[in-house]
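hey so i finally got around to running the thing on that chain from the lab meeting. sorry it took forever, my laptop kept dying and i had to restart like 3 times. anyway pasting the input first so we r on the same page abt which one it is
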Amino acid sequence: MCSVHDTVEFEKRGIPATVIITQAFRNACIFQFRSKGMAGHPYIELPHPISNMTEDEMREVTLKEVDALVKQLVA
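ok and heres what got predicted. didnt touch it at all, straight out
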């Protein structure tokens, strides 16, 4: 999961970062953060799959996560 690796690299440089995944990748995300020394790092989890969602459905799903995203980036 390159997104996790990118998040870790940004965080090491003092730049707040997070990753957005779907539920299918939860275990991989947790494992990667742990293996990179950042166990427990927060992430945003969307339902899976998202590829079949309409634009309106995707907007609804993502808007529900905006507050969590902001919270993670300013913590």
